[in-house]
Design a protein that fits this description.
Blueprint: H1 7-38, H2 42-46, H3 62-69, H4 71-102, H5 110-119, H6 127-136, H7 144-147, H8 154-165, H9 169-177, H10 182-190, H11 195-211, H12 214-219, H13 228-238, H14 251-254, H15 257-294
Helix pairs in contact: 1-15, 3-15, 4-8, 4-11, 4-13, 8-11, 8-15, 9-10, 11-15, 13-15
Length: 296
């Protein structure tokens, strides 16, 4: 039978509840603010400061209509989806192979390789050497300049390695007795048991590529290759379409009060797709993070 809580325990619970409510508010409200602003009357929105608890004025979808009539948004969506799909598949393949290699107990060079991988967490060549490498390899102004530089994350590789080390050795030994080689063990034993950490990697790499803008800004010059985040940056930084954009709506140039509205609608359009992915990966995400972080 559970006894009654003491006064100290009740106070402790109340403080925890208040902190969690505050944390939830700080996390959720900025998203709600952007959503409410995107449906607000642009004239009322332009003259409003402070908190917003609902769409201002008469709710309107005019901002979304203008956003999707901008051809750059569709180009950005197309390119970003391509970068995310190809980048995530390539990153999962390379990261899982690397993690499997350095997790093998009989691999003599795993200590040296792990040292080299860990060093990259603290030291890097810098932006200019990376730019020179990209340019000399012929990747400049190509889709591979966006995908290849971040194909493997050292931190993600270490997390996946830790997960692989937690898989019972007996399963691999049984597969070896049955005549399986390393590739068969990797594909038919390790990977099927690694769904939680694979889901975590999909989320980490997918969100990273979706939100990436600095690398594409440096390595890309062809606007047909720009991801969505670069076009979003132009709208947020310049508060107006860039000079190279070909827009057909004259009111986007003449009605200045629509510019602020377009900022919010573009943020919603660029954020909602990646938010919709999380609920499908949540059950794997929590389990994968805990397993990959506890075992050392």
């Amino acid at each position: 039978m559970v006894g009654k809580k003491s006064v100290h325990e009740i106070i402790f619970d109340l403080v925890n509840y208040l902190l969690m409510i505050l944390l939830m508010f700080v996390t959720v409200y900025p998203l709600l603010y952007v959503v409410f602003a995107s449906f607000s009357d642009p004239k009322v929105l332009m003259g409003t400061e402070g908190f917003i608890w609902k769409p201002l004025g008469n709710p309107t979808t005019r901002g979304y209509k203008l956003t999707f009539q901008n051809p750059n948004i569709l180009i950005g969506y197309r390119n970003t989806i391509f970068y995310v799909v190809v980048g995530v598949v390539l990153s999962l393949f390379l990261t899982s192979i690397g993690a499997y290699l350095v997790s093998r107990r009989n691999f003599k060079l795993k200590g040296f390789l792990m040292l080299m991988i860990t060093i990259t967490l603290f030291f890097g060549g810098g932006m200019i050497p990376m730019f020179m490498v990209i340019k000399n390899l012929g990747l400049y102004n190509t889709v591979w300049a966006v995908i290849l530089p971040g194909a493997i994350s050292s931190w993600n590789l270490i997390v996946m390695r830790t997960f692989f080390q937690g898989i019972p050795v007996g399963l691999e030994e049984a597969a070896l007795i049955d005549g399986a080689n390393d590739w068969q063990i990797f594909l038919k034993v390790i990977i099927p048991l690694s769904k939680p950490v694979l889901a975590v990697m999909v989320l980490y790499y997918g969100v990273g590529i979706w939100n990436s803008w600095f690398g594409p800004m440096i390595y890309l010059r062809n606007r047909e290759l720009f991801p969505l985040q670069l076009f979003l940056r132009e709208i947020l930084m310049q508060s107006a379409p860039a000079s190279g954009q070909k827009l057909t709506l004259s009111d986007m140039q003449t009605d200045s009060y629509y510019k602020e509205l377009l900022q919010y609608t573009t943020m919603v359009v660029s954020t909602v797709p990646i938010l919709c992915v999380y609920p499908f990966l949540q059950k794997y995400f929590v389990k994968g993070v805990m397993i990959g972080s506890i075992k050392g």
